[in-house]
Amino acid sequence: MRASRFFISTLKDAPSDAEIVSHQLMMRAGMIKRLGSGIYTYMPMGLRVIRKVEAIIRDEMNKSSAIELLMPLVQPAELWQETGRWTKMGDELMRVKDRHGREYAIQPTSEEVITDVVRSEIKSYRQLPLNFYHIQTKFRDERRPRFGLMRGREFTMKDAYSFDRDLAGMQASYKIMFDAYTRIFTRFGLKFRAVAADNGAIGGSGSHEFHVIAHTGEDALVYCPTSDYAANMEAAEALQTGERAAPAQELVKTPTPGTVKCETVAALLGLELSQTVKTIALTVETEKDGKVSKAYFMLLLRGDHELNEIKVGKVPGLANHRFTTEAELLEVYGSIPGFLGPIGTLQPVTVVADRTVANMSDFVCGANAADFHYTGANWGRDLPEPHIVADLRNVVAGDASPDGQGVLAIERGIEVGHVFQLGTAYSESMKATFLDENGKPAPLQMGCYGIGVTRILGAAIEQNFDDKGIIWPAAIAPFEVVLCPMGMDRSELVKEETEKLYAALQAAGVDVILDDRGQRPGAMFADWELIGVPHRVVIGERGLKEGKLEYQGRRDTEATGVAPADIVAFIQGQMAQ
Amino acid sequence: MRASRFFISTLKDAPSDAEIVSHQLMMRAGMIKRLGSGIYTYMPMGLRVIRKVEAIIRDEMNKSSAIELLMPLVQPAELWQETGRWTKMGDELMRVKDRHGREYAIQPTSEEVITDVVRSEIKSYRQLPLNFYHIQTKFRDERRPRFGLMRGREFTMKDAYSFDRDLAGMQASYKIMFDAYTRIFTRFGLKFRAVAADNGAIGGSGSHEFHVIAHTGEDALVYCPTSDYAANMEAAEALQTGERAAPAQELVKTPTPGTVKCETVAALLGLELSQTVKTIALTVETEKDGKVSKAYFMLLLRGDHELNEIKVGKVPGLANHRFTTEAELLEVYGSIPGFLGPIGTLQPVTVVADRTVANMSDFVCGANAADFHYTGANWGRDLPEPHIVADLRNVVAGDASPDGQGVLAIERGIEVGHVFQLGTAYSESMKATFLDENGKPAPLQMGCYGIGVTRILGAAIEQNFDDKGIIWPAAIAPFEVVLCPMGMDRSELVKEETEKLYAALQAAGVDVILDDRGQRPGAMFADWELIGVPHRVVIGERGLKEGKLEYQGRRDTEATGVAPADIVAFIQGQMAQ
To answer: For testing the chain A interface, which of B67, B107, B516 should be mutated: the one with the most A CBs within 10 Å?
Structure first.
């Protein structure tokens, strides 16, 4: 490609609404252009990256026996009503009516349509397994679109759907996709991590997220550096190790006037935060024969730990809960918020202690009286053992790995892929069955597998940038090599050598752009550093007379002189690294 | 590709709503699957064809210096309001509201968005010319979607938009696109014709449609077999050649009771239809200072000719007209419909004669009296020369070619491409300007260029099918060659030769599918004839023992025996034809 025949449009400054670095750099590098809230035109430079990402995904999907088709964007409401997602998805689902008043969804994903295709196509177990995928535009009407391609409304996703005759088959299909995803993200040249994820309400027995590692990532990833264990924060289990120490202090009701947070209580009392226990009061309402009854739960968490909502929802009886109101707090605990505690409540309360709390001794907790906390509280002595002991908290770095192979570390990531064992949730609601070996109808076992194609661009940049701009991994860079001739219009020698090298690199199958725009060197270099092309060759008359071209990798701090005769091989060597 | 790893799903019968052969065959061959009215899933077999079509388009667009980007599907209403198309497009424009009540169009085309992109990116004439294109899903809420991919609601289109500094530049860009389209349709392997088209109300100075030739085509194409002249029916000019003959008959008011059509009048009087003149009465209303005034026009057309609405609209004073009502007819002509004529009207009427009619003598026309016609009518003698002589009719085969190089022929076609000189219509309404050489702002000169990607499939089939199924041109066939082994599971020899040939064809870069499904020969052959793969090789044990494989082209009536050693070269030879 010659730059003069391409469209290059760079900006000195990013627009003010670009909050994160990938959004800023993509705008500045002219890769995307905002059309509306969360809606972007993919400009020529950005589209090249998208196409490279798609090509790698497509290649690995095909190699994994997944079959490409293309499902429509505009999908009849009836299918979405069959699974209940027409209402369940709420405002995120973009709904549209045609001229006859018929309703449609603009697809945010395609479980319904593929299940509809398959239920009419698949009759027999002999036709299974099958895995269909497409790479298609999606729309999700996010409440607050932001971060450019990271949380847009219109975006491109690769979504695949596997169909199997039984659980073992579904798990085998899942494994094939997991391995394909691992190859895909490896080929992108990105540092990534696959982590076990919570399955959510949808059921099924397994789910993994693929994250691109980046300091700026929204998600905390938990992993064990000395084993294979990896999970997202929702799913990572916090073990309790060691024994509860014997009581060493007396229970004392201590004045803590106006001190409602564990941090300030610990500071006031001169104790470690890890000696305090915080209390979360929940109410569960159940209706029976038109009468609503309430049950009260008190969750106990160590002062320095964070509550994990997903884990709370899994505690028996707590699937549907809400926070206890202030009126209820007075009635049940006789206390205002900030001073609640498990010792002495006015009404019966189910005490659910986090595993860590259940193992504490001599701890500090609220006294159910304004401006008072207990210190030196001990299970069994000052209050009964907790009714329920459960894993309620987010893990922290240094926790024991659940596989017993070391301690946990935490890093941040950006979710770019998700593989999911769906089981029969969709096939049952949509009556997608096949005839098994005995001629009996059975529901299809499904898996689904997504990659956020356009999000990959944002994630790749969040992982790879510097103060000059983007640093693309070569596999997904808009161009692999840029040629920057110095005064091509003035020097016949420069022109000749540049054209020779351009032709030679093209012949070698290198994706090269020749910057023939006639810019000054400073502006030209700044453009390509901003755009993030990984390899640059400067062709100048002085260098040529000394028998040298100047090669510089995007991460290099200095250029390397390379003889014109060696440059193609040299670049290939750099690209192979 | 191995058939066992692909998805093949053929049907004996087409669904009853498939009215035309391409729709029937695409459904039967498992290329598309209906999701809703005018909305189809492109199944794996169909998607392969689409991808090949797209690849050829993309290659020729890129070679023509057009630059690919990707504009969003969901486009803010504000842009469409700027050009007035938000209302002008009526119900065909699919409108959608987001969660905040903001309105969007699902793109049916992207003039507004590309003009918005360009007006913010282009500052100077130095950045011109530019031509951007994308290949993107479109949605048009057709009143009556039908014919499968031929008139669907959701479809794929390639749309390109050129931007130039002046008219000459725009015409040069147009020529480049015209030539690219010619190469594209040639590469598809389809018989096609580019015809001059009417520009419509949008202005600009040129427009051509590209049609795939097919007996079943909706459009009539006019061309001159002995010259380059070609136009669609709307645009083809009907010349009048020769002189008006001298009157030979007397004017006679002849009773024609209950005979209102030219056909029946001619039959009653024992005359040729070409001796009759039909009358179309139009009314034009104009409002001035709140008062509506009416003008009456009488259009005269030879009895065997068809009125061309587009041409009528171009007659001075007739841009906005309606048919004259029966009440008006009585008032102006004193006649009921069916007996109107240009001789003797009650009120002043502007007589607009088609060129052919102006040249007639001794013609038959209505007498403005129920149940009477005149015969032997002659211009100048029985009535004044017409006020206006204009081209009002559709051309017919045998008419003189407007270029004077022969006579016209007519064939039928399916419109699959359109190139259009837009001029400044969009750039003016959207204030898309650039600074010219003198530093003065000037509106961009635009062109737009569309190809109906998915429609190509339907058109290709309408042109190429037989009673067994589709006959794809090799360039866009889902596979170029199919290998049909006979009893691959029983014969080691067949298996070995098949695998060898499969590998050899792949190595030669041939897009080959190996049918390893283990079907019986009849079913297997029927599948591939229906799907329309252009080249087939049957590998059987008997043939192999005689040193032969059976090659058969999709249009061949008999197979040809070819030695295994020669088969790759033989196929390549067939493909090169």
So the answer is: B67
Out of B41, B73, B120, whose CB is closest to A71?
A: B41
What is this structure's pTM? 0.92
Phi, psi of B88 (to 5 degrees): -60, -35
Please check whether the domain covering A10-236+410-461 is classified as CATH 3.40.630.40. no
Q: What pLDDT does residue B157 have?
A: 97
Nearest to B73 among A70, A73, A121 (CB): A73
Across the interface, whether the CB atoms of B36 and A74 are under 8 A apart is answered yes
Degrees, nearest 5: CA angle A281-A285-A286: 145
Per-residue pLDDT averaged across A471-476, rounded? 97
List the strands of the sheet with A481-485, edge to edge.
A512-514, A481-485, A535-539, A549-553, A560-562
Chain centre distance of CA A140: 16
A144 touching chain B per CB within 8 A: no
Chain A positions in Cβ-Cβ contact with residue B43 (cut-off 8 Å): 69, 117
Does B155 touch chain A if contact means CB atoms closer than 8 Å?
A: no
Count of other CB atoms within 10 angstroms of residue A310? 15
Closest residue of chain B to A2, computed from CA coordinates: B65
Q: Which CATH architecture has domain A252-390?
A: Alpha-Beta Complex (3.90)
B506 touches chain A (CB under 8 A): no
Please identify which residue in the block is written with the tokens 């060759």. Answer: A537
Topology match between the domains A252-390 and A479-576: no
How far is the C-alpha of B299 from the C-alpha of B359, rounded, in Å?
15
pLDDT higher than 70, residue A205: no
B203 or A267, which is more confident: A267
**CATH architecture assignment, domain B477-576:** 3-Layer(aba) Sandwich (3.40)
| ipTM score | 0.92
Write down the CATH superfamily of domain B15-237+410-461. Bira Bifunctional Protein; Domain 2 (3.30.930.10)
Annotate B472-495 with b (16+ C-beta within 10 A) or e (fewer): bbbbbbbbbbbbbbbebeebeebb
Contact A106 B104 (CB under 8 A): no
Name the residue among A349, A373, A239 with its Cα closest to residue A298.
A349
- The CATH number of A479-576 is 3.40.50.800
Q: What is the pLDDT of residues A435-448, one digit of tens each?
A: 999 999 999 999 99
Of A9, A36, A94, the CB nearest to B121: A9
Q: How do the domains of chain A map onto residue ranges?
A: 10-236+410-461, 252-390, 479-576
Query: pLDDT at residue B306 above 70?
Result: yes
Question: Other C-beta atoms within 10 Å of B576: how many?
Answer: 7
Best to test chain A binding among B35, B91, B121, B457 (most A CBs inside 10 Å)? B35
CA distance A433 to A119: 6
CB contact under 8 A, A69 and B99: no
Residues 6+ apart with CB under 8 A from B287: B293
Burial of B509 (0-12, 13-18, 19+ CB in 10 A): exposed
| A314 touching chain B per CB within 8 A | no
Interface with B, mutate which of A91, A98, A519 (most B CBs under 10 A): A98
Q: Which tokens go with A67? A: 């079959």
3-state helix, strand, coil in chain B (%, to 5): 30, 30, 40
Q: Residue with structure tokens 């003698």?
A: B381
Cβ–Cβ gap A7/B143 under 8 Å: no
Q: Please give the mean pLDDT across all residues of chain A.
A: 95
Confidence of residue B354 (pLDDT cuts 50, 70, 90): very high
d(CA A165, CA A438): 12
Residue from B5, B28, B37, B41 whose CB has the most chain A CBs within 10 Å, to mutate? B41
**pLDDT-derived band of residue B205, with 50, 70 and 90 as boundaries?**
low
